[in-house]
Amino acid sequence: GLSFDDAQCRFIIIPKLPFPVTHGNPVMAARVSSDPEYRNILTSIALDQSIGRGNRSALDWCTIVVLDAHITWFLKHVSQHFRSAVDKTGNIRLSTLELGALESEDE
After folding, report:
1. pLDDT above 70: percentage of residues in the chain
2. What is the distance between the alpha carbons of residues 20 and 99, in angstroms, rounded to a whole number?
3. Contact 19/79 with Cβ under 8 angstroms?
4. Predicted confidence band of residue 82 (pLDDT cuts 50, 70, 90)
5. Minimal CA–CA distance to 88: which of 64, 57, 66?
């Protein structure tokens, strides 16, 4: 895979969350049907790997922008796998705007 250490990458744009495609894939559709959390686990892994391309060490940093509006839902309902990965890096924080969007969904 690609590794953008230190100043090689300071900005990542993720236009769409990497949800696995189930349409036209009977094996994936059956797996997701039998375990609804499976889709979130695969998405978590793919998103974590994307974010990790610009965060290669504890001292490295990278600004990540996710354009997909589903990110607020995903972060709110995500599997523990991704939450743990985010917490370990210490570099990924939700902006005030995103936190407000998460809070307003609870109402």
Report:
1. 72
2. 26
3. no
4. low
5. 57
Tokens at 41, concatenated: 């686990």
For 10-54, write each residue's pLDDT tens digit. Answer: 888 889 999 888 889 899 889 989 988 888 888 888 888 887 777
With a CB cutoff of 8 Å and minimum separation 6, the contacts of 3 are 53, 56
| pLDDT recorded at residue 44 | 84
SS (H, E, C) the chain: CCCCCHHHCCEEEECCCCCCCCCCCHHHHHHHHHCCHHHHHHHHHHHHHHHHCCCCCCCCCCEEEECCCHHHHHHHHCCHHHHHHHHHHCCCCCCHHHHHHHHHHHC
